[in-house]
């Protein structure tokens, strides 16, 4: 999409929004569908701004449960489709009004176009909490997650102090060093992969994305740095998946810190899902997926970006 603000976005997305509205009316028996969607949007707007994109408030879950009781999974999905699409024009207008968020626009537009093209055909059961692709799409249209290419940014997150207690004395020492360098644990940007832009997952894509993040961070002097938590910062990747070693090398060469943390419920699935090699090495006892948090403090991050 090229410019045009909310009016342009409304015009571009009108057919998809109209289709979602028709489907919602059909499922909810007429105008009642729009009333339900409006009250659901009001509940969504009460989501605290400094809460992570995937920490769904109890009020939102309760509103979803009410929809489910009234019309089952098909009503929940119809409301979610409509809310996602109907939120796009105003979200785009709000993003475009903030000059420092200019790097987000291109990625927001491509995410929105993907939603408009795909949501009607997305099965009902995939359009609900806590499924991450749905939660991320919702976060994008609610402007809680800025899509920026290889990763999206959750802009106001607190670093979890308990991470530094999960690797014994080494973790505690690292924690002290990190707190000293960051001078606090919030706010930081937390980075997340976004399924609609996985084609940007390459050394070039990550580097370009970090530059976009730096451009925005430069305009927000209160941000202390960025962090991400995943299996692919693991030093073992140098050996098992050397084509992914760039992911650690670049930040570590420019002032980032790596902290070993406890594995989560998805660590093994995520690490083994796409790679026959990692699955084979794991089965042979030669690779155990391990989660790490990578923290890149503001000063060295912006210094890298200025010189990159
Ligand atoms: C993270 C992720 C996107 C990285 O994908 P990737 O850059 O393609 O790297 P992977 O090592 O996972 O690639 C999978 C396979 O494709 C191959 N591959 C990757 N890039 C390739 C390329 N440019 N050319 C040819 N083959 C390639 C790899 O060789 C690998 O197979 P192998 O390990 O058996 O050799 C992918 O692993 C993934 O989607 N994982 C599941 C979700 C996840 O982990 N999300 C993050 C949660 S924090």
Explain what you see.
This protein has helices at 5-28, 32-44, 58-86, 88-96, 102-118, 132-141, 168-182, 203-218, 237-240, 246-253, 267-273, 276-283, 298-307, and strands spanning 146-147, 151-157, 188-193, 225-230, 257-260, 292-297. With 308 residues, the chain is α+β, with helices and mostly antiparallel strands. It has a 6-stranded mixed beta sheet, with helices on both faces. Helix 1 (5-28) packs across helix 3 (58-86), helix 1 (5-28) runs antiparallel to helix 4 (88-96) and helix 8 (203-218) packs across helix 13. It is globular. The model has no long low-confidence stretch (mean pLDDT 93). Strand 3, helix 8 (203-218) and strand 4 form a beta-alpha-beta unit. The chain has 13 helices and 6 strands. The protein has 2 domains: 5-144, no CATH class; 151-307, 3-Layer(aba) Sandwich (Aminopeptidase). The site of coenzyme A has 15 residues, from helix 11 and helix 12.
């Amino acid at each position: 999409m090229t410019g045009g603000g909310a009016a342009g976005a409304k015009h571009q997305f009108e057919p998809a929004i109209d289709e979602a509205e028709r489907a919602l009316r059909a499922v909810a028996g007429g105008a009642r569908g729009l009333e339900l969607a409006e009250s659901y949007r009001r509940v969504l707007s009460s989501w605290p701004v400094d809460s992570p994109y995937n920490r769904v408030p109890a009020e939102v879950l309760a509103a979803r449960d009410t929809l489910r009781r009234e019309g089952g999974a098909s009503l929940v999905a119809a409301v979610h489709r409509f809310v996602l699409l109907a939120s796009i024009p105003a979200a785009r207008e709000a993003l475009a009004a903030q000059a420092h968020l200019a790097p987000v626009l291109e990625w927001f537009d491509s995410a929105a176009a993907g939603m408009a093209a795909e949501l009607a055909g997305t099965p009902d059961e995939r359009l609900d909490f806590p499924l991450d692709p749905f939660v991320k799409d919702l976060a994008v249209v609610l402007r809680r997650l800025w899509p920026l290419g290889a990763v999206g940014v959750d802009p106001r997150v607190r670093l979890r102090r308990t991470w530094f207690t999960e690797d014994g004395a080494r973790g505690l020492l690292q924690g002290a060093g990190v707190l000293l360098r960051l001078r606090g644990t919030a706010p930081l940007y937390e980075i997340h992969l976004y399924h609609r832009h996985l084609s940007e997952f390459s050394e070039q894509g990550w580097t370009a994305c970090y530059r976009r993040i730096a451009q925005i961070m430069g305009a927000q002097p209160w941000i202390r740095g960025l962090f991400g938590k995943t299996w692919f910062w693991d030093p073992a990747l140098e050996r098992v998946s050397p084509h992914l070693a760039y992911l650690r090398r670049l930040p570590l060469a420019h002032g980032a810190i790596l902290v070993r943390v406890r594995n989560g419920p998805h660590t093994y699935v995520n690490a083994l899902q796409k790679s026959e090699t990692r699955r084979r090495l794991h089965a042979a006892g030669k690779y155990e997926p391990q989660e790490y948090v990578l923290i890149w403090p503001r000063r060295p991050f912006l210094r890298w970006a200025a010189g990159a």
